[in-house]
Amino acid sequence: MKRARPCRAGRAGAGVHGAVRGSLTPAHRRVRWAGTLLAAIAVLLAGCSTSPASTTTAAGKGSGRVIQVVAAENFWGSMASQIGGRHAHVVSIITSPNTDPHSYEPTAADARTIAGAELVIENGIGYDPWVPRLVGADQEHPLTLDVGTLLGVPVGGNPHRWYNPTEVQAVMRQLVADYSKLDPADSAYFARQRTRFNTIALKQYNALSKAIRAKYTGTPVGASESIFAMLAPALGLKLITPYPFLKAISEGTEVSAADKQLIDNQIRDRLIKIYVYNSQNVTPDVQAQLSEVKAEHIPYTTITETLVPASATYQAWLARELAGIEAALARAAQANR
Fold first, then answer.
1. Cα(37)–Cα(16) distance, rounded to whole angstroms?
2. Which of 74, 95, 226, 334 has the highest CB neighbour number within 10 Å of its CB?
3. What is the torsional sign of CA 26, 30, 34, 37?
4. Is the pLDDT at 38 greater than 50, yes or no?
5. Which of 82, 91, 85, 90 has its CA nearest to residue 62?
């Protein structure tokens, strides 16, 4: 059974926002490049300037070098903007909560945006395979930060690395290195920005993560897809949903009857204390599990694939999700008394 996304509204175009068009397609499918799009890209790349999709402007007072940055997804874009500060102008291509990053189709305007970049940030791991195609068509060959390559995660691995706090630190270190390579005079500034991000921006997120680990380590939990497999261990939670099911839901491939039966048993026997699902990808299988969870009065909460709302910062988005997870765990603990 191919992945259905009934929870998502139809895609509405929004120019360079790289917005969603038509109905969603299965995750991780290879983008089919129409001849007309390739022709348009060739023309655009001949001589073009950046036309921002969703812009996080880090312009500050005073003069100085401003690096032009394009992030394929807004979670990496939010981090890049905060690390770059006044010396970086960051544009994120995928910003809408209604856009499925797995199956996103780039536009000619996206090619124009990337053509104006000095640094391009892509998730890699098969999550945004259209980025290398656009970068390869750019004769300027901008510096590229491929998160999957940086972390040594091959195509087929779990692509949701922005939910792994240890790996996020590795990405931030590389951002500082790349910014410093492009703007050596401001290398000390970029290092200070990273320190500020860790000590101030991530303060609430780190506090919530620490509180969850201190109180709920070892708690068995269930989830709808592999997006939570990155976060659960960092919170000390024991994710017992079979990984093949998590991966299948994320990638839109067929789910085994044995895995579905096992999960049904986990819910019916209340072996999981809470259920965490991706509200941007509610397939029929996930909807069925959610109905069972509600029938058993098991607390549940949501996480999402991209920033919600689109204007949120990376840290505010994650802190709100952690607050929801902590509240669900508290309800479960209260019910078991």
1. 14
2. 74
3. positive
4. no
5. 85
Q: Is 263 exposed, middle or buried (0-12, 13-18, 19+ CB in 10 A)?
A: buried
- Per-residue pLDDT, averaged over 252-281, amounts to 96
User: In whole angstroms, what is the distance from residue 287 CA to residue 1 CA?
Assistant: 15
Tokens, residue 35: 């001849």
pLDDT, tens digit, 9 for 90 and up, residues 41-100:
443 444 443 333 444 444 444 449 999 999 999 999 999 999 999 999 999 999 998 888
Structural domains of the chain, ranges and CATH numbers in brackets = 15-201 (3.40.50.1980), 215-335 (3.40.50.1980)
